[in-house]
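pasting for the record
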Amino acid sequence: MVGGQGSADQADARLWAYRDPMGFQRLIELLVEVSVEYLSGQVDAGADVLQIFDSWAGSLPDEQFRRWVIEPTKTPRWRG
């Protein structure tokens, strides 16, 4: 999404997160918002299981992994 095509190391996304963490945080918040909306619709449609895949988790240092992957997905934000 950030680089315009797939990447083995997601260098463009990691560079943006490093250079402009507040701007990158806004992207993460938007992705969380639309993901919650989409996944909530899946539950409403009868899905019993939901799974989130993260394509860049393996290329992040531990602190960045916590900030950009764990934190945005750990707190339930399901609409009621």
